Amino acid sequence: MSEFSGPPQQQKKSFGTWFRNLRPVSKFRVILFGVAILVAPFAIYFGLDEPNQAKVGDCMAGETAETLHTVECTDAAAQWKVLARLGDKTEADYTEDSCADHPTAEMSFFQDGRRFSKGFILCLGPAAG
Fold this sequence. Notes:
It is a single chain. The protein is of the alpha+beta class. 25% of the residues lie in helices and 22% in strands. The protein has 3 helices and 5 strands; from the N terminus they run αααβββββ. The chain has a 5-stranded antiparallel β-sheet.
Protein backbone atom coordinates (compact mmCIF):
# COMPACT_ATOMS: atom_id res chain seq x y z
CA MET A 1 0.00 0.00 0.00
CA SER A 2 1.14 3.41 -0.75
CA GLU A 3 0.44 6.36 1.40
CA PHE A 4 -0.95 9.49 -0.20
CA SER A 5 0.58 12.66 1.01
CA GLY A 6 -0.93 15.89 -0.24
CA PRO A 7 0.20 19.44 0.33
CA PRO A 8 0.84 20.28 3.96
CA GLN A 9 -2.23 21.62 5.70
CA GLN A 10 -1.90 24.84 7.63
CA GLN A 11 -3.66 25.23 10.93
CA LYS A 12 -6.11 28.09 11.17
CA LYS A 13 -5.10 30.75 13.64
CA SER A 14 -7.65 31.84 16.20
CA PHE A 15 -8.50 35.52 16.61
CA GLY A 16 -6.65 35.58 19.93
CA THR A 17 -3.48 34.26 18.36
CA TRP A 18 -3.77 36.65 15.44
CA PHE A 19 -4.37 39.63 17.77
CA ARG A 20 -1.43 38.73 20.06
CA ASN A 21 0.92 38.69 17.07
CA LEU A 22 0.01 42.25 16.03
CA ARG A 23 2.23 45.23 16.73
CA PRO A 24 0.92 47.62 19.45
CA VAL A 25 -0.05 50.27 16.88
CA SER A 26 -2.05 47.73 14.91
CA LYS A 27 -3.75 46.51 18.09
CA PHE A 28 -4.75 50.10 18.85
CA ARG A 29 -6.21 50.50 15.36
CA VAL A 30 -8.21 47.26 15.64
CA ILE A 31 -9.62 48.31 19.02
CA LEU A 32 -10.42 51.83 17.77
CA PHE A 33 -12.22 50.41 14.73
CA GLY A 34 -14.22 48.05 16.95
CA VAL A 35 -15.30 50.90 19.24
CA ALA A 36 -16.33 53.01 16.22
CA ILE A 37 -18.43 50.13 14.87
CA LEU A 38 -20.18 49.82 18.24
CA VAL A 39 -20.75 53.56 18.85
CA ALA A 40 -21.81 54.71 15.36
CA PRO A 41 -25.29 53.13 15.37
CA PHE A 42 -26.09 54.70 18.73
CA ALA A 43 -24.92 58.14 17.56
CA ILE A 44 -27.10 57.87 14.47
CA TYR A 45 -30.09 56.48 16.37
CA PHE A 46 -30.06 59.07 19.13
CA GLY A 47 -29.59 61.93 16.68
CA LEU A 48 -26.37 63.50 17.71
CA ASP A 49 -26.70 66.08 14.97
CA GLU A 50 -26.19 69.70 15.89
CA PRO A 51 -29.77 71.06 15.91
CA ASN A 52 -30.78 68.17 18.13
CA GLN A 53 -28.15 69.18 20.70
CA ALA A 54 -28.99 72.93 20.67
CA LYS A 55 -30.10 74.47 23.97
CA VAL A 56 -31.60 77.83 24.84
CA GLY A 57 -28.84 80.44 24.68
CA ASP A 58 -26.74 78.58 22.09
CA CYS A 59 -25.78 80.37 18.89
CA MET A 60 -26.24 78.84 15.47
CA ALA A 61 -25.33 79.48 11.85
CA GLY A 62 -27.10 78.30 8.70
CA GLU A 63 -30.36 78.76 6.88
CA THR A 64 -31.54 75.22 6.11
CA ALA A 65 -31.86 71.92 7.98
CA GLU A 66 -28.71 70.68 6.25
CA THR A 67 -26.58 73.72 7.11
CA LEU A 68 -27.87 74.68 10.56
CA HIS A 69 -25.19 74.05 13.19
CA THR A 70 -24.10 75.39 16.56
CA VAL A 71 -21.23 77.88 16.78
CA GLU A 72 -19.68 79.93 19.54
CA CYS A 73 -21.62 83.15 20.13
CA THR A 74 -18.37 85.10 19.66
CA ASP A 75 -17.90 83.57 16.20
CA ALA A 76 -18.51 85.97 13.29
CA ALA A 77 -20.57 83.24 11.59
CA ALA A 78 -23.18 83.25 14.39
CA GLN A 79 -26.50 84.27 12.83
CA TRP A 80 -29.03 82.98 15.34
CA LYS A 81 -29.51 82.60 19.05
CA VAL A 82 -31.80 79.86 20.38
CA LEU A 83 -34.59 81.70 22.20
CA ALA A 84 -36.70 78.63 22.97
CA ARG A 85 -36.73 74.90 22.47
CA LEU A 86 -40.28 73.58 22.32
CA GLY A 87 -40.20 69.83 22.84
CA ASP A 88 -42.75 67.08 22.36
CA LYS A 89 -44.04 68.56 19.07
CA THR A 90 -45.34 67.03 15.86
CA GLU A 91 -45.21 68.46 12.36
CA ALA A 92 -48.85 69.54 12.80
CA ASP A 93 -47.74 71.72 15.76
CA TYR A 94 -45.21 73.53 13.56
CA THR A 95 -47.06 76.63 12.32
CA GLU A 96 -46.29 80.31 11.80
CA ASP A 97 -47.47 80.90 15.37
CA SER A 98 -45.22 78.26 16.95
CA CYS A 99 -42.86 80.92 18.31
CA ALA A 100 -45.49 83.61 18.99
CA ASP A 101 -44.44 83.73 22.67
CA HIS A 102 -41.00 84.92 21.52
CA PRO A 103 -41.56 88.19 19.61
CA THR A 104 -37.89 88.59 18.67
CA ALA A 105 -37.86 85.21 16.89
CA GLU A 106 -37.16 85.67 13.20
CA MET A 107 -36.82 82.03 12.23
CA SER A 108 -37.97 78.67 13.51
CA PHE A 109 -36.71 75.18 12.90
CA PHE A 110 -38.61 71.91 13.26
CA GLN A 111 -36.97 68.52 13.56
CA ASP A 112 -39.11 65.44 13.45
CA GLY A 113 -38.66 63.08 16.35
CA ARG A 114 -36.66 59.94 16.22
CA ARG A 115 -38.18 56.55 16.56
CA PHE A 116 -40.87 56.42 19.28
CA SER A 117 -40.61 60.12 20.17
CA LYS A 118 -41.98 63.45 19.03
CA GLY A 119 -39.89 66.23 17.55
CA PHE A 120 -39.00 69.74 18.66
CA ILE A 121 -39.13 73.34 17.45
CA LEU A 122 -36.29 75.82 17.86
CA CYS A 123 -37.25 79.51 17.99
CA LEU A 124 -34.31 81.50 16.67
CA GLY A 125 -33.63 85.20 17.01
CA PRO A 126 -30.73 87.34 15.82
CA ALA A 127 -27.42 86.40 17.45
CA ALA A 128 -26.55 90.04 18.08
CA GLY A 129 -29.70 90.57 20.11
